[in-house]
Amino acid sequence: MAHPFHHAERSARLFGGVADDYLELHSWFDESKAHLPDLRHRALRHHSEGIFLAEKLFGVTLTNSDGKRVPTRLVGEQHVKDDLGRIPTVADWLTNLQMQPWMLRTPFRPSSAARREPTSDEAASPAEPTGSAVAARVANPQ
């Protein structure tokens, strides 16, 4: 489907209520279009994990304008199935991801000052740096 509103209209036909009852959920599924405006945006939320995440974010059920409680996962499943014909897993999307050199970069390495052993005065101080210590590190990262 081309737009979250059309998904919401279908939800209203399937579960009752009006399209506005479901629009926020369907808009969430398609929010990634703002960053990748083609079908690949679906890799971010159009899968089983995305459906369960929607349930965490929106609650176990939605109450539509008819007063009917509708399982959020059921509406999420409808969205994904309408777009893809099935509910893929995250692995279904990621196994087809082509590795790129930038993905293989070495991990972050803190500066030598950050790796050194603390002095006895530093060891006695709290584990979390104070605001001034953080500001000093930002101003002079070495």
Characterization of this structure:
- The protein is mainly α and 142 residues long.
- 47% of the residues lie in helices and 4% in strands.
- Strands 1-2 form a two-stranded antiparallel sheet.
- A hairpin with a 5-residue loop joins strand 1 (61-63) and strand 2.
- Helix 3 runs antiparallel to helix 4 (72-84).
- The longest helix is centred in the middle third of the chain and has 13 residues, at 72-84.
- The protein is elongated, with a radius of gyration of 23 Å.
- The N and C termini lie far apart (52 Å).
- The mean pLDDT is 87.
Biggest sheet layout: 2 strands, antiparallel
- Provide the gyration radius in Å: 23 Å
Major sheet: order of its strands? Answer: 1-2
Low-confidence stretches: none
Beta-strand fraction estimate: under 5%
How far the N terminus sits from the C terminus, by CA atoms, comes to 52 Å
Shape: elongated
Report the oligomer: single chain
Total E-strand runs: 2
Order of helices and strands: HHHEEHHHHH
Write the layout of secondary structure elements.
Blueprint (H helix, E strand, L loop, with lengths): L3 H12 L7 H8 L17 H11 L2 E3 L5 E3 H13 L5 H5 L17 H4 L4 H5 L6 H9 L3
Antiparallel strand pairs: 1-2
Helix pairs in contact: 1-2, 3-4
